[in-house]
Each structure stands twice: as C-alpha cells, then as structure tokens.
C-alpha cells in the first residue's frame, strides 16, 4: 500500500509541476516582444487588419482565457496554428520530435557505454596508472564542447576517412543501415561529452561503495575487488548515478539543438531555431512546452526507478 501511495504521490507532483511549467512557459512567451498578427500579415498591414487578425487568433482576450484555451488544446494534442505558415504546429513537431528522440536515445546509450566502464575501472584502479589515465581522460572529455567534438568527428571520419556521412538524415524508405550511418557521428558527439561527465559521478559513487563494510567483508572472503563490486555494490552505487543520468538526459535534449545544427539534422532543435528566427511564437511555445514536459517525464521515470533499484524506498513514508 505504501508503494502504491508513493507512486500516486509522485504522479500528483508530476501533474502539478507540469501545470505550473505550462503556465510559466505561456506567461514568458506572452510578454516577449512581437505580435503574431504582425508576423502573419507583415509590416505593411493596416491597423484594421491587425485588429481583425488579433481577434481571429484570440489575442484580444485576457491572458488567463488565452491560457485556458491553449492548455485545453494542448491536452487534446493541439499545439496551435503557426502564424507564419498557417499550418498546425503539432504534425510538424511530431515529425521532428522522433528524430530528436532517436538522436538523444543513441547519445545516452553512448554516454552509458562510456561512463560505466570508465568510472568503475577508474575507481577500482584509482592508485594505478590506468585508473589515473581514465580519470584524466574524463576531465578532458568534460572540457570539450559537443559542437567541437562534432566538428572533429566530421573532419576525421567523414571528410578524411569517408566512413560516415558528414550530415543529414535518412529519408522515408531507407533501411536500418542507412539510419545508423547517419546516426553514429552525432550520437558520439552528443554522448561522449556527457559520458565523461557521468563517468566522474560513477567513479565517485563506486568509491563510496568500496568503503562500505559489506564490501570489505566480501573482499576479506577472497573475492577480487571488481568481482565483489559487481556482485554486491553496483546496485547501491546506481542510485546517485541514476539521479545524475536523469539530469544528463535532460541536458542532452538541450544539447541536441547544437548537434543538430552541426550535422544539419531536421529535429526539434533545428525547428526551434528556425521558428525563433521567423518570430513564430506559437510554434516556439509548442516546442518549448514539449521539451519541458519531456524533462519532467524523465524526472518522473527516474523517481520511479529508485524504488526498483532500492526496495527499501518502496516502504518509505
């Protein structure tokens, strides 16, 4: 019963946070300079036409009424109509969102594959040359921006070696091999940097676990340090790492904006930059809301995974 109550409480907090976040996004973009009606009609529009366009868009109503109308549409999947193109924002956003989702998922996979082995070995062999070398490499990785890593990867693997495309994305009908060829370089550039950050937290968490009495007992019984850690300690070390991993996944959603620009990928990041440049605030509002909700969902999933990793939290009050 306590576990079910804890889940319901977390879902309630998520719903309340999502509502508050949507209010903040709507309020901030509502006060940004720029008139959607002016964007739609152009600078030569007469005041009468502007007033009619504002009335048609509902911009002449009080902000609370506008928010309720927008939030109601949002619950039904309606993100509004672009003031620039005159088309619904939702279908275009959905077509771009899956590209960013695939890129971020691949980048997170790269980050985990880099961080976990590097952090564990750096902690277990911290006083040996290879452990110190891995710690140093993680520090170097933290200092390298994702866009610079992308440019270096393009220079080496796309321009000189010609192993992968330098940019772009697959088209409808392309197979898995084509998708992977376009995905490898941007996923590495996005994931390696975050993996270096995550490796530092893995190392710190593993060091804390290695100092616990039950690990000392396991080693005293003859288990090698790495085997004792894998058998008895990784689950306890996973909780702080999971927390940081959730944060890093949210950071990747933002970092994807830059990576998509470097590799000319038509994802949410490229769409956001395009709509900001066109002053299409209706579309910007929809994109920002989707990104904020995605981060909130990530945090909710991380909270729920705590109880899977540590059974003691299921009975926590």
From TrEMBL:
Bilayer-crossing regions: 12-32, 97-124, 136-159, 179-202, 237-263, 283-306
Subcellular location: Cell membrane
GO cellular component, one term: plasma membrane
Keyword Membrane on entry: yes
One protein family per Pfam: BPD_transp_1
Gene3D superfamilies per record: MetI-like
InterPro entries: BPD_transp_1_N, MetI-like, MetI-like_sf
GO molecular function, one term: dipeptide transmembrane transporter activity
Domain called ABC transmembrane type-1: residue spans: 97-306
Domain of life from the UniProt record: Bacteria
UniProt KW Transcription keyword: no
Keywords, alphabetical: Cell membrane, Membrane, Transmembrane, Transmembrane helix, Transport
Record membrane topology: Multi-pass membrane protein
Chief location bin: membrane
Coiled coil: none
Entry's family note: Belongs to the binding-protein-dependent transport system permease family.
Protein name: Peptide/nickel transport system permease protein
């Amino acid at each position: 019963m306590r576990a079910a109550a804890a889940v319901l409480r977390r879902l309630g907090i998520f719903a309340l946070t999502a509502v508050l976040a949507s209010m903040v996004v709507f309020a901030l973009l509502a006060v940004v300079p720029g008139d959607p009606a002016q964007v739609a009609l152009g600078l030569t529009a007469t005041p009468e036409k502007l007033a009619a366009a504002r009335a048609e868009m509902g911009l002449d109503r009080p902000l609370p009424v506008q928010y309720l109308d927008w939030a109601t549409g949002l619950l039904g999947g309606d993100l509004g109509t672009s003031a620039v193109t005159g088309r619904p924002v939702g279908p275009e956003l959905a077509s771009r969102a899956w590209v960013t989702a695939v890129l971020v998922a691949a980048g997170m996979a790269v980050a985990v594959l880099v961080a976990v082995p590097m952090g564990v070995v750096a902690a277990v062999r911290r006083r040996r040359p290879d452990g110190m070398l891995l710690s140093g490499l993680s520090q170097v990785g933290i200092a390298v921006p994702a866009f610079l890593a992308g440019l270096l990867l393009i220079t080496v693997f796309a321009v000189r070696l010609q192993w992968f495309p330098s940019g772009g994305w697959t088209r409808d009908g392309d197979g898995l091999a084509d998708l992977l060829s376009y995905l490898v370089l941007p996923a590495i550039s996005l994931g390696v940097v975050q993996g270096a950050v995550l490796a530092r937290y893995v190392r710190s968490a593993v060091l804390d676990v290695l100092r616990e009495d039950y690990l000392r007992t396991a080693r005293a019984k003859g288990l090698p340090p790495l085997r004792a850690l894998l058998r008895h300690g990784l689950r306890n070390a996973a909780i702080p790492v999971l927390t940081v991993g959730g944060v890093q996944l949210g950071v990747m959603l933002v970092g994807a904006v830059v990576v998509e620009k470097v590799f000319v990928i038509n994802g949410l990041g490229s769409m956001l930059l395009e709509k900001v440049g066109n002053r299409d605030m209706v579309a910007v509002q929809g994109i920002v809301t989707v990104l904020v909700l995605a981060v909130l969902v990530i945090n909710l999933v991380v909270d729920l995974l705590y109880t899977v990793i540590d059974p003691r939290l299921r009975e926590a009050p």
